[in-house]
Here is the input.
Amino acid sequence: MRLTAPVLGLAVAVGVGGAASAATVFPPFTPGMPVNQVLSLVGGSPAIEAIFLYSDAADRSILSGPAGALFTNNNPGADAPGTIKSFAFAGGPIAFKLENTTSGETYYTDVLDADGNGHAVRVTGTTSLATIESVLGLTPGAISGQPGVATAWSNFVAAAGSAPIIVIAWEDRKLNDPTGQGVDWDYNDLIFAFAGIVPAPEPASLALLGAGLLGLGFAARRRRDA
Ligand SMILES: [Ca+2]
Ligand SMILES: [Ca+2]
Here is the structure.
């Protein structure tokens, strides 16, 4: 097909739109980054929707949430990318666990491994698969080009409505991996997304918020005293 100028213009506009969204990756891809992923549920959500987006892992892994196992990569019992599931959650802090059952290692979103390294990064602020691929260092189409995944993602985003979407991307190997396969810290071996979960405020943010409220209180008192 010969692309006409208007079609090219649309493609460029869509591309720019994706890149311009305020996607953030946290923490940055720094091996050994001693930051835990503190996540929290948006209040009032009766259930959390989850989607399996991508696997670049020959190992068998199981992702679990607070209600137990959610997704399995590789046989037996494997889920295909594009699979959507929901699970109930009462609220408050929430953590996810990735068990690499091939290597026997288990990683958590909120706990560092025995070497002091974190194994998950989160991406927020975008619903563009192209942007997610870009910020996670994947080739364009790596996620969206898988059979059925682009459609599943559209359905997932539509069902989420105004609920925020968070992407959790894992590094599934560790230093001195027992299977002898080295870690590369690319944080794209297994990728999932969830609707209705947000990063919990960090202690520094809470302290700032507290100081701000304190300041408001002082200001109000000064006005009353004046
Ligand atoms: Ca990796
Ligand atoms: Ca990888």
Summary: Confidence is low (pLDDT under 50) at residues 1-20. The pocket of calcium ion (ligand 1) is lined by residues 171, 173, 184, 186, 189 (CB under 6 Å).
